[in-house]
Design brief:
The protein has eight helices and 15 strands. By secondary structure, the protein is of the alpha+beta class.
């Protein structure tokens, strides 16, 4: 797998192309959208690498989580016509990224630990005592919303109160989003624990369905949007002051941080070993969480997509 070049972009002759950090989407008939997941990897609000099979893991793992969380809140997922493609219900995205944190950690400017270690004690509207150690579990999970740093912009921290007082989301919708986010996170932590993992934090995106109801969109509990740690070694590594063993993109963040990159300008190229290790982490997260074997899709992804989605625009 390490010799395969990752998929940096995907394109189909369909209407209303929209490009995000990792996904490309198109409009389909019947108030639906087609979402194509590339192998692009973002960190510090920028694309920093292309990781083979990452897009497939994100697409198929999100599908699994969507199917296994409908009892909590409705989501946009309909089906997967290709390992890198999802057909979902169209929604109007809410202009807030809903980050749920269960641990005092992180290396980006919006993370709890980066702000706490710089001296802040009121973060996202929450009060934190002195003397907290990095990577320790919080008494309860908290919601730390941010603005969406689209088109290369940086995410900016918000308090839960800011979301309403700034007129970003109305109170009733925001109440529903917060309840759903905390319930989804608790569900995710239970599933992760059975797989021998600690779900430390995650990011959700919500939208409004055609009838105005709240809908979970984008992705769910993937190694891109979540931080997964090995439970078996978590405590001993914490006691030694070491970083937890992870099954997410934190090694990429740490490698970039060690190079002095914090999101400004173009990042330095990452070593092939880091890219390969990240592929393996993503695949391991998929197999452990779902209990399924990962079946790699054929590359190049573009050719496979064109074959599998020949008549998608007519459906």
């Amino acid at each position: 797998m390490s010799t395969i070049s990752g998929c940096s972009d995907l394109e189909l002759p369909l209407a209303d192309r929209r490009t995000g950090k990792v996904r490309v989407s198109y409009s389909l008939k019947g108030n639906r959208r087609l979402f194509l997941t590339t192998d692009r990897l973002s960190a510090f609000d920028h694309i920093v690498a292309v990781v083979p099979f990452k897009g497939q893991v994100l697409n198929e793992l999100s599908a699994w989580w969507f199917e296994n969380s409908r009892h909590i809140v409705q989501n946009h997922f309909i089906n997967c016509p290709d390992p890198n493609a999802t057909i979902g219900h169209a929604a109007i995205p809410l202009a807030v990224e809903v980050v749920v944190r269960g641990v005092m950690t992180g290396s980006t400017s919006t993370s709890l630990w980066r702000q706490y270690s710089s001296g802040a004690r009121e973060i996202y509207g929450y009060e934190f005592p002195d003397g907290l150690q990095k990577n320790t579990v919080l008494p309860r999970a908290i919601i730390t919303p941010t603005t969406k740093g689209d088109a290369g912009g940086h995410d900016e921290p918000l308090t839960c109160t800011d979301v309403v007082t700034r007129g970003i989301i109305d109170q009733d919708v925001w109440n529903t989003v917060q309840q759903a986010a905390l319930s989804l996170f608790a569900h995710g932590q239970k599933v992760a624990e059975k797989a021998g993992l600690l779900l430390a934090d995650t990011k959700y995106e919500f939208g409004l369905a055609a009838d105005g109801s709240v809908m979970l969109i984008d992705e769910m509990h993937t190694p891109d949007s979540s931080r997964y740690w090995e439970l078996q070694t978590y405590r001993e590594r914490l006691d030694r002051g070491e970083e937890p063993e992870s099954l997410d993109k934190e090694p990429v963040r740490l490698a970039l941080d060690a190079l002095g990159y914090s999101g400004n300008g173009n990042p330095s190229p990452l070593d092939d070993a880091i890219i390969s290790a990240t592929t393996q982490r993503y695949i391991a997260a998929y197999t452990r969480l779902t209990g399924r074997q990962f079946v790699p899709g054929d590359y190049p992804v573009q050719q496979r997509l064109e074959k599998n989605l020949q008549n998608i625009g007519a459906r």
